[in-house]
User: Fold this.
Amino acid sequence: MMELWTQLAGGFATAATPVNLLWALLGCTLGTAVGVLPGIGPATAVAMLLPITLKVEPTASMIFFAGIYYGAMYGGSTTSILLNTPGESGSMVTAMEGNKMAKSGRAGAALATAAIGSFVAGTIATVVVTLFAPAVAEWAVKLASPEYFLLMVLAFCTVSAVLGKSTLRGLTSLFVGLAMGLVGLDQISGQARYTAGVPELMDGLEVVLIAVGLFAVAEALYAVLFERRVDASQNKLSRVHMTRQDWRRSWPAWLRATGIGIPFGCIPAGGSEIPTFLSYATEKKLSKHQGEFGTTGAIEGVAGPEAANNAAITATLIPVLTLGIPTSNTTAVLLGAFQNYGLQPGPQLFDKSAALVWALIASLYIGNVMLLILNLPLVGLWVKLLKIPRAPLYAGILIFATVGVYGMRQSAFDLVLLYAIGLLGVVMRRFDFPTAPVVVGMILGPLAEAHLRNALSIGEGKWGVFVERPMSLVLLLVIAAVLVLPRAVKLLRR
Assistant:
């Protein structure tokens, strides 16, 4: 335990340098802005900024991206409450009661409980990350190639099944990503695969390029082509404060929601939508003010989901940092950011890049305080962002993405590929195919292939190696449960 606190103190020393504090503030500010603006989201923002931050020192860059990630969760509540327009998916439930409170003249109390609840839940979840991430990493070091291969198969199954409305569409997206991961030179034989004789493809497809194309370019093009202009009515912003009764009703909801959100973040179950709905259902059931739900707006219905959202988001860093398994769109892009710097998230990360990991964890504590300060007094400023016209906003995203990708290798081929991937992303959005499995498949696919080959060499070519080892057998059963249980539940409900 003493060693853990020593490492955390070292992390604070790194994260608290003026340069890193500035990057954290910039990330938190930009993340809040991204959360406030409907339709952009943290995955798009991180993907768009990946090429531009290539020259930035890795620790500063990761602190910056982490700030954007959880800053967006704070900002998303502002539009949900005032406009009934969630800035990102985790804020959908907040809109249900938050907007009702705003219409009843209690927008300030709703915004305050959302911001303070996010701070409380985010801080508790960060403590959990601090305490348990090293233990998970120590356990993961003991695993061999058969277990790693099955962990990646589990990641493929959960991301494909959970992200998106259809498992079949999720798996289709995954196979597209796996195919992209195969492009380039074979790791063992050194032979070119699926390059079509194009020299630029010999080194494989750039993760950054694919992420920017699928998220930033596709988002902008889709908005231009298919989304109609929506005139949202804004509710009057009252003073951001809570009464004694509001505090009394909010703090149990914050704690309950934190307990719901953290487990969902830790397991590869994808996104924060499930814990926010569960939290809302819990608060509605336990509340003594049933009549306020769906009418004037119940403050518990804002406090709970918002805290659950932030707790789940912070806890997702455990599977990402310790196992290299992303559980959402943004963590998939963050995984690409790590690889961009030659870092492979997983159990070895805590040994090889301990300074970076602990600085990143320390920045979560600092960022939560920054976001509380940014969100409560400056809420009026964030509301003004909503007046930015959509046309110049999306044009700016396209220019940013194009310049960033061209700056990586100064290649015209990269730009053609960028917009081809962007159009693929538009088609995927149009027909409801999730995009995160593509990035996950592309990043983890080559690693899964390498571990599969190693596993078969350990088993002397026999597939029984996956059943003979206790841990790999457990993982096989978990994978089977992920694929079978949802369908079994559906059949039973009929």
In short: The CA atoms of residues 246 and 337 lie 41 Å apart. The two ends are 51 Å apart (CA to CA). Residues 2-147+197-434 form one domain.
